[in-house]
């Protein structure tokens, strides 16, 4: 999985006035959980642009005064009016501990059902998976080439030994449905 480096500085004071001063200076207060104790730090708001405003999923390498931590984005809070980032929570990654993440689904191929007039529905754009950090994929590839009109691609067809899905087996990832034009053409053909 691809990683983005975030350079920050540790925070000494974590009160309301200290966080307000940080935000006024263009910094975002953050907390790194998962280790022995939470690590409070701050970083420039611009450094989170490639991590947050993208459909892709990345791990974060957090550099704080000589120490580096591997982490994933756990939670983010935005201002309700201005959409500025108010606070970010990260979760520290360890090589031997599995982690849960939402991974984007990438549809590959051209469906046979779509070629004859069906409509493709992409039901699940992200899937929740559990895996060791080394086994986390950048995206999950779903081949839709064999889908005819009325067929569905279930999550069981995407199974992989490197990670497990945290969804029921009957979860539909994509399906090809009868489009209005195809239904109209079939009705006219019957006349």
From TrEMBL:
<dbReference type="InterPro" id="IPR029751">
    <property type="entry name" value="Ribosomal_L25_dom"/>
</dbReference>
<feature type="domain" description="Large ribosomal subunit protein bL25 beta">
    <location>
        <begin position="99"/>
        <end position="179"/>
    </location>
</feature>
<feature type="domain" description="Large ribosomal subunit protein bL25 L25">
    <location>
        <begin position="6"/>
        <end position="90"/>
    </location>
</feature>
<dbReference type="InterPro" id="IPR020930">
    <property type="entry name" value="Ribosomal_uL5_bac-type"/>
</dbReference>
<protein>
    <recommendedName>
        <fullName>Large ribosomal subunit protein bL25</fullName>
    </recommendedName>
</protein>
<keyword id="KW-0694">RNA-binding</keyword>
<keyword id="KW-0689">Ribosomal protein</keyword>
<keyword id="KW-0687">Ribonucleoprotein</keyword>
<dbReference type="Pfam" id="PF14693">
    <property type="entry name" value="Ribosomal_TL5_C"/>
</dbReference>
<dbReference type="GO" id="GO:0005840">
    <property type="term" value="C:ribosome"/>
</dbReference>
<comment type="subunit">
    <text>Part of the 50S ribosomal subunit; part of the 5S rRNA/L5/L18/L25 subcomplex. Contacts the 5S rRNA. Binds to the 5S rRNA independently of L5 and L18.</text>
</comment>
<dbReference type="Pfam" id="PF01386">
    <property type="entry name" value="Ribosomal_L25p"/>
</dbReference>
<dbReference type="InterPro" id="IPR001021">
    <property type="entry name" value="Ribosomal_bL25_long"/>
</dbReference>
<comment type="function">
    <text>This is one of the proteins that binds to the 5S RNA in the ribosome where it forms part of the central protuberance.</text>
</comment>
<dbReference type="InterPro" id="IPR037121">
    <property type="entry name" value="Ribosomal_bL25_C"/>
</dbReference>
<comment type="similarity">
    <text>Belongs to the bacterial ribosomal protein bL25 family. CTC subfamily.</text>
</comment>
<dbReference type="InterPro" id="IPR020057">
    <property type="entry name" value="Ribosomal_bL25_b-dom"/>
</dbReference>
<dbReference type="InterPro" id="IPR020056">
    <property type="entry name" value="Rbsml_bL25/Gln-tRNA_synth_N"/>
</dbReference>
<keyword id="KW-0699">rRNA-binding</keyword>
<dbReference type="InterPro" id="IPR011035">
    <property type="entry name" value="Ribosomal_bL25/Gln-tRNA_synth"/>
</dbReference>
